[in-house]
Amino acid sequence: MRKQQHDILNCELIAVTGKGGVGKTTIAAALALVASAEKKQTIVCEVSGQRRIPALIGHPTAGAPGSEEQLARDLWATTIDPELALVEWAGKLIRPRALLDLAVRSNSFAGFINAAPGGRELLTITKAAELSRDERWDDDADGYELVILDAPASGHGLAMLKTPTTFAQIARVGPIANQARDVEELLADDQRCKVVLVSTLEETPVNETLELQAALAAQMGRGADLIVANGLIEDGLDGGELSELETVSVIDPIAVAAIASRHSRSLLQQDQLRRLRSGAQCPLIVLPAITSHAVGPDELQQVAGLLAAALAQRS
Ligand SMILES: Nc1ncnc2c1ncn2[C@@H]1O[C@H](COP(=O)(O)OP(=O)(O)OP(=O)(O)O)[C@@H](O)[C@H]1O
Ligand SMILES: [Mg+2]
Fold this sequence. Notes:
The chain is α/β, with parallel strands linked by helices. It has 12 helices and 8 strands.
């Protein structure tokens, strides 16, 4: 029997953003594992030339730029290349083919991308949306059930989500305006598109997460759908136990100092978790720090398992 799907996965596009270094790529990849385990045909998209996810998932190759690489059953990955996306899209609009080739050779696409502020972001988000469409730019390709976008950090991520609106207003009519309006509609619809904010439990990332949440509401008329508080230190000590440890002289003082420092970091995290919880206007889930090294395929499976369990509790 098909398992019940988690709420957050019931949409066409999930954009994952948050402050730099908080775990966006890890959470985007883990969400993709959870979705594909539920037999949802899922593609996870990296941007800005990043191609970390295939290796993170344990796949030996990343595929050519712009290609959709199958990593596992119901799971694909791609790195969106705005220039390739523009050529692909233009292929639908510019006929005959010789004219398209001329436009490619004359570098006019690169000109558009570099001249139009936000052009790269528009093409990136437009390509992400295109991956979920039944009618793809490539007539032979099928749309994915779910697209997960490992979006740029905070301000840049929000700017990317806003570019379709900006371009639709500037272009007003014609194919760019129509395309931008379609994507704008998708992003504004909180049933079709979900926004996941990732934060660690430190002051600046929590501030940024709460600011992002407010900016999404003010600038896009929609909130975030899930906040992931990532990297909670599971300390388990209370103050009394720590003082007891400190009095046991046989224990290496360096080890005791390390335990004490971990304990005080964990207390600071609890303060930040309280702030995040009280400011969050959407569901929040907490994931522990699972390793002190970089997350690899085994750890990613562990994060995905924890994420699935936390999401199941919410649905
Ligand atoms: N729950 C976790 N436990 C332990 N380590 C984690 C956890 N989540 C992420 N990490 C580690 O934290 C680091 C940053 O994670 P990640 O690359 O996913 O962040 P990011 O937000 O995508 O960063 P960037 O802004 O550079 O793209 C990585 O080394 C990753 O392995
Ligand atoms: Mg990243």
